[in-house]
């Protein structure tokens, strides 16, 4: 180190550490965020199937739509099975449960 501040090797080491952080942690954070959002959509689909079962048992309703955070969850009852279809980040999602 000289009297003027950092030396060239220290600057390169700092740059290398910053590059490692952004090239490994940022993609991992994006993957985790995507995974959490997908699980959230599946949880809302499960809630929708529960509400659909209530509507089906109470009034015989065979289909419906629930909107949550500008995302539509369409449910139908076929052969004693309730299926919820929704659009996920990875494509169409499907959640089915027997009545």
Count every beta strand, where a strand is a DSSP E run of 2 or more residues.
4
Strand fraction equals 25-35%
Name the structural class.
Answer: alpha+beta
User: Level of helix content?
Assistant: 40-55%
Order of helices and strands: HEEEE
Reported for the largest beta sheet, the result is: 4 strands, antiparallel
Residue windows where pLDDT falls under 50 for at least 5 positions: none
Whole-Å distance between the termini?
73 Å
Shape: rod-shaped
- Rg, alpha carbons: 25 Å
Count every helix, treating DSSP H or I runs of 4 or more residues as helices: 1
**Main sheet: strand order:** 1-2-3-4
- Average pLDDT works out at 90
Task: Give the SSE map.
Elements: H1 8-59, E1 63-68, E2 71-78, E3 81-88, E4 91-98
Antiparallel strand pairs: 1-2, 2-3, 3-4
Detailed description of the structure:
The longest helix has 52 residues, at 8-59. This protein starts with 7 loop residues before the first helix and ends with a strand. The chain has one helix at 8-59; strands spanning 63-68, 71-78, 81-88, 91-98. The model has no long low-confidence stretch (mean pLDDT 90). Helices cover 53% and strands 30% of the residues. A hairpin with a 2-residue loop joins strand 1 (63-68) and strand 2 (71-78). The chain is an alpha+beta fold. The radius of gyration is 25 Å and the shape is rod-shaped.
């Amino acid at each position: 180190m000289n009297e003027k501040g950092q030396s060239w090797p220290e600057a390169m080491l700092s740059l290398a550490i910053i590059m490692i952080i952004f090239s490994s942690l940022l993609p991992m954070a994006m993957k985790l965020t995507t995974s959490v959002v997908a699980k959230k959509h599946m949880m809302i689909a499960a809630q929708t199937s529960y509400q659909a079962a209530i509507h089906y048992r109470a009034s015989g309703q065979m289909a419906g739509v629930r909107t949550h955070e500008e995302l539509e969850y369409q449910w139908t009852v076929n052969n004693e099975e309730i299926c919820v279809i929704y659009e996920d980040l990875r494509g169409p999602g499907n959640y089915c449960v027997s009545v």
